[in-house]
Amino acid sequence: MPNFIITEYFLPLVEFGDRISPNPLKPRNDYIDLPVAPGLGVDINEEAVAQHAGKLYALRTLRRPGDEPGGI
To answer: Model-level pTM?
Structure first.
């Protein structure tokens, strides 16, 4: 993409990507080569993903004016 200059890529996720995909996207010399396979070009091993359960976070409510000191 000629107008695409920068993206964020979290290096701590490289190890996780290696575990869940036989062909993960990896930075090399500060660049990520474009995949040549169809779609995103990444295969996901769903069995490996299932071994890493997601973390549930408690729901939060939005603050209202009455929640503030001196609020309505």
So the answer is: 0.50
What is the chain's length?
Answer: 72
Residue 17 DSSP SS3: helix
CB burial of 16-33 (b: ≥16 within 10 Å; e: otherwise) equals eeeebeeebbeeeeeeee
For tokens 């929640």, name the residue: 67
- Amino acid found at 40: L
* Residue boundaries of the structural domains of the chain: 13-67
Residue 68 — very low, low, confident or very high, per pLDDT cuts 50/70/90? confident
Read off the DSSP letter of residue 27.
Answer: E
**Rounded (10°) CA dihedral 56, 58, 59, 63:** -140
